[in-house]
Design a protein that fits this description.
seven-stranded mixed β-sheet; 8 helices; Rossmann fold; 189 residues; binds S-adenosylmethionine; 32% helix; alpha/beta
């Protein structure tokens, strides 16, 4: 059984803590294919899927936390909700065309395994879009400090490290700067 983690405990107030997903800020930078299904990996309360499902051909929100998904279920969204672990995705090899990982990778314990798993389930030329905080930036150092106090056990990458890891796994990668503290690494299988 998956044990109750911090996200499950704060799930009912998660959206209030982090605020709305800023689709305006990121929408144009996301290389999404509108005719394809999107896997929102670690999609939690469906905060991002709520916006993204309107610009793609359906969303699957996958998260380890049943409590986070329960919050997603309360929203009027069409996305499919799936409880599962990033390091063992419940999808067939070569079956998914696009995966979005929003503010989640630094919370994943088995980061390499999860990216390898994404590689496995993506079709050739499928895309893995990871949005992360840049740990070299001052504002992010403050976030890292608070996550340490809260014992989140987060592990942040610099864009170069993340690109390096995705490249090692077999992806071709591209760095896309977003804001002062956030970036995308877009990887193609
Ligand atoms: C900071 S939240 C981000 C949620 C969502 N992507 C968003 O932008 O609102 C991180 C999420 O990752 C999920 N998570 C952590 N480890 C996971 C794993 N190994 N597999 C799947 N989901 C995981 C947590 O349950 C949590 O919902």
């Amino acid at each position: 059984m998956i044990k109750m983690d911090l996200f499950s405990r704060i799930a009912h107030k998660y959206d209030n803590i982090v605020g709305a997903f800023n689709f305006e800020e990121i929408g144009r930078s996301l290389p999404l294919e509108k005719e394809d299904l999107l896997l929102d990996f670690g999609g939690g309360t469906g905060r991002a899927a709520e916006h993204l499902e309107a610009v793609v051909n359906g969303c699957i929100v996958l998260d380890r936390s049943y409590e986070m998904l329960k919050q997603a279920a309360k929203k009027s969204i069409q996305s499919h909700l799936v409880q599962g672990l990033g390091e063992s995705l419940p999808f067939r090899k070569n079956s998914i065309k696009q995966i979005f990982v929003n503010d989640t990778l630094h919370h994943i314990k088995k980061q390499r395994e999860s990216i390898e798993e994404c590689y496995k389930v993506l079709i050739p030329k499928g895309k893995l879009i990871i949005r992360e905080f840049d740990r070299r930036k001052f504002r992010v150092k403050i976030l890292i400090f608070f996550e340490k106090i809260l014992r989140f056990g987060s592990k942040f990458f610099s864009p170069k490290e993340l690109q390096g890891l995705c490249h090692e796994i077999g992806f071709n990668t591209k760095f896309v700067p977003l804001t002062k503290s956030k970036y995308l690494v877009v990887s193609m299988k």
